[in-house]
What we know:
The structure holds two protein chains of two kinds.
Chain A: E1 10-21, E2 24-35, E3 39-44, H1 50-57, E4 65-70, E5 73-74, H2 80-86, E6 88-91, H3 103-110, H4 117-130, H5 132-136, H6 147-159, E7 165-169, H7 177-192, E8 196-201, H8 204-210, E9 213-218, E10 221-227, H9 228-233, H10 235-240
Parallel strand pairs in A: 3-8, 3-9, 6-7, 7-8
Antiparallel strand pairs in A: 1-2, 1-4, 4-5, 9-10
Helix pairs in contact in A: 3-6
Chain B: H1 4-11, H2 15-40, H3 46-72, H4 79-102, H5 127-154, H6 161-178, H7 187-192, H8 217-236, H9 238-248, H10 250-255, H11 260-283, H12 297-310, H13 315-333, H14 340-360, H15 370-393, H16 402-416, H17 430-433, H18 439-446
Helix pairs in contact in B: 2-8, 3-8, 3-9, 3-11, 3-12, 3-13, 4-5, 4-6, 4-11, 5-11, 8-9, 8-11, 9-11, 12-13, 14-15
Amino acid sequence: MAGADPQTPPMLEVRGLDVHYGAIQALHDLSLSVKKGQIVTLIGCNGAGKTTTLRAISGIVRPSGGGVFYEGASITAAPPYRLVRMGIAHSPEGRGIFSNLSVSENLDLGAYARSDHDEIARDRERSLTLFPRVRERLKQNAGTLSGGEQQMLAIARALMARPRLLLLDEPSLGLAPQIVQTIFKIIREINERGTTILLVEQNAHMALKVAHYAYVLEVGRIAMADEAAVLEKSDAVRKAYLGVG
Amino acid sequence: MRSLVDSSIELRPRLGPTILASLWPIVVGIAFAVAMQLFVKPNINDYFAKQLLDIGISIVLAVSLTMVNGFTGQFSMGHAGFMAAGGYAAGAVCYYVSLRIWGTGGARGSILSGMPLDPSGLPSFAVGDLLFLGSLLVGGLVSALLGFLVGLPSLRLRGDYLAIVTLGFGEIVRVLIQQTEPVIKTAAEAAQTPVLELPIHVGGALGFTGLPKYTSLFWAYLVAAITIIVAFRLKRSTFGRAFLSIREDEIASEVMGVNTTRFKVWAFVIAAFFAGVAGGLFAHTLGVGLSAEAAGFMKSFDVIIMVVLGGLGSISGATAAAIVFTLLPEVLRDPLATPAWIVVAILGVWASLSGLAAWRSREGGAERPWVMKLALKLLIPGACVVAIYLAGKNGIDLSPYRMIFFALLLILMMIFRPEGLLGVREIWEREAWSWLIGGRRKAVAASPPQGGGS
Lengths: 245, 454
């Protein structure tokens, strides 16, 4: 595991974030930070506010209070299409595959914000090396892929933006355990190549295994935060999320 | 497997071939339009020529609406509103400029506008054509501007809001047109009226009459060709992929870096432009009384039916649907008078494409032989043709029931093929037709996901 240097300023910082959906408050004064080069995970149950947090970071929902800072600059409520150009890629919940377009077109759209053609071709090659299964399906309609393949495509597509920070929303959702293993292996590999990752997961077991640092979210509030390895051993987490103890 | 090298070449095409590749469709389009006017028109009767003209305008409307409803997946119900606005704008420009300059509202076109070479002894070759072309552009631009004004607020919202707003827009245009002043008939009066007041004098509830009749097969098919080319260029470009991604998943599209509001407004404005030009064509057609009803909901609905039947996002589908939808009422009215080759051609295209799809999916353990499947699929359209023919033979006029046919067709479509005849695909793409023979299911079955997944 790449060690975390305590001196580095956080790459992404969320300070006191509030999000409302109409009259319902989904996030309460939520703060978290992601250090460069790390995998940070946000775990919690259904409805805890994990996806909302990611959406507020990438500008899809507007926070009603607090701020989001990326590499020192405020990106609070910046529209999502700007963030992509700043190096933040978001692989949305439910994969967000363009099912009537071909796999290849999906990848092209991942690089939509870029115009450096040679580098895009190189990143395409890199993504496809990472996910050989996606390469086999390039010409197919993306909607005909299996769930696991779609998840791989979603991640490969997000990588096409050449992000410095990758936001992953539940990559294990609805996948067979074997595929989940593969995907988490690749997530770690992506991180080792230098991409910082904020990973939202319900599968606390797998998430804590790959992450450096972890936050536990409970009904819109951060309940616990510590090194992933520490949390994995903590009794509260083991009871509530890992189903042991 | 494509290597790194050739995919980067594909991304950076060389200039020469690119220009050639983008020019040839335009050349073909112009040649086709000229041929329609100079070679087809003299050999057919006026009735059928009018049908062809209507088809040309319908194609422009259907293909332009495809850019909004098909590409970006928004649902505009006010296409006729844009068409009428463009038609009135183009008509006002063309009519009052003629009146002011030449003292008469008559057309002074060239042979391409369907005129004899020298209509009134004046050296007016093509001057009127230029005026007409300019009017069409004005119509398109006015309509595009309206599209921008309507689209900017409503396209920020997701979902059905656009449908409601555009529905209202069409009605507003209709009512506004009804409130306009009577048409000025003489050059003397027109000369006395201030220029800025002229656009108000477009006939009100009585309709805008006396417009010069420039629209010919040449103009209709020229605009149709341009619309189709623009639509194709859009669909195949990065720009167009952004449109399609909005339709597929708006949130995902946004996080890919697509400014979705901007693109939706763009699609809307481009579509409104072509609808406006189509309106200009419609306004200057012989035998058409331009009135406020052109902006009505029924007209918008006609275009929506074409787009939905053809397949949301399929340009060739929209074109085919525009042809069929425009001809069908006439076919139902008097099946025996319809040139038989049209029916044969439509059935022939249907048969050969589905035959091709059937033949291509012949392997892979189909439960029935592909020839039999093909025969089964051809049974339905074949039966329809026979039924319509028999009705005609026995003197039964089916045309009053055409809306029932369309309604039934739409209901069946929504049940069996909700994405339209061709879906997003084009007529020549295999995926578009594999459904006809069950090829898609086969394609999935042939590549079972390995190692699980959901």
